[in-house]
What does this fold into?
Amino acid sequence: MKTIESLSFFGSITIGLLKKYSNNLIDKNEVIKTLQDYQKNLIKEKGIYLSASISECLIVLSNQKEPHLRLDFINYPKFPLSEKIFISEINSLGKYLMKQFEQNRIVIIYHNKIVMFEVDDKIDPRIIN
It folds into this structure.
């Protein structure tokens, strides 16, 4: 048995499962399929492997109670990346998912920072009512 080590850093994308601020629920299997297609293209085009762990979660703020998926990524030792490439590729994936699933805002948590992308300043009416 051999031991393989890589630098330890992680990223986590949290994506809402409601389109915009509606009650139109996005099927989690659609998100998974979209992720898999993106991964296959990333492998083919750049030789980059981004393995994801996916968990269901609920974001709660005031009257908002929205189902989300959390996609966790690590610098997997079998396919290690530099921190710069790791963050760049996860940011690109986050923006892609945001567009595909009509999200106004998406948050990515890294080991050393939090990044938020947003289309506009609108707030979910359930939060402010």
Remarks:
- The chain has one domain: 10-128.
- The helical segments are 28-46, 83-100, 125-128.
- The two ends are 58 Å apart (CA to CA).
- The beta strands are 10-16, 52-61, 64-74, 105-110, 114-118.
